[in-house]
Each structure stands twice: as structure tokens, then as C-alpha cells.
Write a structure and sequence with these properties.
Length: about 230
């Protein structure tokens, strides 16, 4: 029933925190745009996967040119993003027209591996969802005004993407009205009354947000390619 696979790759950033004049998904690492590295991991995991790339409206043409120049044209659709992540993902979901396993992934998490994609797919088939997570390694404190208190880090998990779902679960959840609590797809699905299930993430699956993250990603990819 869910043999079809669709990855919605959300690339809505504009590069402000990176201090870049172009969105960070278009920056190069090891001679290739971050967005292309990300696409490569999904296609390496499943040769039949379909991709929906969500980009800022002003960068749709640049996205098309990047994909065409590098031969990435098969099974890829481009969609304009919205003002929020929720709206951007919802726009991407408009391309899901039949029963599928749907991955929603941050374009700037280009260090994921095909093994993670495959692990998420298998669990979503079995349980309905797969939310990659890794354990917290730092101490964690909750701040409340001028007060703060420690949390047991053994009970804290750090959430990653691709957040993966059976399509009917995700499509139904995104019929809800947006709230500020919808910071990721797991929150949206949970608010719709569905339990979400974690799956082992990867510590190297970092989100490239700042210049330091870019340097770390360069180092990791250099090791992988060596």
C-alpha cells in the first residue's frame, strides 16, 4: 500500500544567520551545493523516490537552474514555500496525491545517510511514523523568567529530520489551522491525536545554520569522500 516514496525537502531559509548573500542551501561544500548533497542521500537510499523541493519564491528559478545544470531533473518538482515551515510543508504536501511514505527533511541537513532514510521508511511502514532523534549530551536547564531548573538529560531527546509518515496521517494532520506550536511535523501530527514514534537518528545529521556548522560539515564530508 505504501510502496511509493516521496521526500519533501524544505529549503526555505534565506541565509541570514549564515551571514550569506544567498540562501545556505545553495552554498557549496566539497564543490557541490548543500541541496544537491541532500538530494543525493535520498536517491542513494531509494532509486525510485520522488522529490518535492520547497524553495523561497524568489529562488525557484535558481533552483531549477541548479538542478538542470547538474542533471537532477528526474522525479523532482519545485514548489514555492510559505511564510512558516507549516505552510511550506503544506505546499509540498499538495504534490502527494496517492498513498505514500512521506519524508519531510531540512535541506540543510545534508549529512544524513541513506541508512537513516531507509530506517525511517521501514519504521513508518510498521508504525505510521518515524521521527529521528539522538540523546542529549550536554546538561539541560529550563529557564522560567529569572529562575532555572535542571532537567534529567536521560529523558531529553534532540529531534532531527527526515520526519517520516504514512501519507494519510500527515495529510490529515495538515488540515488543522496553524499555531505557533507547530515547529515540526511531529508536533502537527501529535496535535491531531496521533502518537508519534522516535527512531535512532545520527549525531552527524546536523542542521547547517551558522558558519561553524558549515566548517563542521566540510570536515565530515571530506572524511567521507577521502
Amino acid at each position: 500500500m505504501y510502496s511509493k516514496k516521496i521526500a519533501i525537502i524544505v529549503a526555505g531559509g534565506t541565509g541570514q544567520r549564515m551571514g550569506s548573500v544567498i540562501p545556505k542551501q545553495f552554498l557549496d561544500i566539497q564543490g557541490k551545493a548543500i541541496l544537491l548533497h541532500t538530494i543525493d542521500q535520498f536517491t542513494a537510499a531509494f532509486s525510485d523516490i520522488e522529490l518535492v523541493i520547497v524553495l523561497p519564491a524568489a529562488y525557484i528559478e535558481e533552483g531549477k537552474n541548479l538542478l538542470q545544470k547538474n542533471g537532477y531533473t528526474q522525479h523532482i518538482q519545485l514548489v514555492e514555500g510559505g511564510e512558516t515551515r507549516f505552510q511550506s510543508v503544506k505546499n509540498g504536501l499538495s504534490k502527494v496525491t496517492e498513498s505514500s511514505i512521506v519524508f519531510v527533511h531540512d535541506a540543510v541537513r545534508c549529512l544524513l545517510t541513506p541508512a537513516l532514510v531507509q530506517r525511517c521508511y521501514q519504521q513508518a511502514l510498521e508504525k505510521g511514523s518515524a521521527i529521528p532523534a539522538v540523546s542529549a549530551t550536554d546538561s539541560v536547564r529550563i529557564v522560567n523568567g529569572e529562575n532555572n531548573s535542571v532537567l534529567d538529560r536521560e529523558q531529553v531527546m534532540l529531534i532531527q529530520t527526515p520526519q517520516t509518515f504514512q501519507s494519510d496521517i500527515l495529510l490529515d494532520a495538515f488540515k488543522q489551522a496553524y499555531t505557533a506550536l507547530f515547529t515540526d511535523e511531529a508536533n502537527v501530527v501529535e496535535a491531531n491525536g496521533q502518537k508519534v514514534y522516535l527512531v535512532d537518528g545520527e549525531f552527524e545529521n546536523i542542521k547547517i545554520t551558522r558558519p561553524l556548522d558549515l566548517a563542521i560539515a566540510e570536515h565530515i564530508l571530506a572524511k567521507r569522500f577521502s
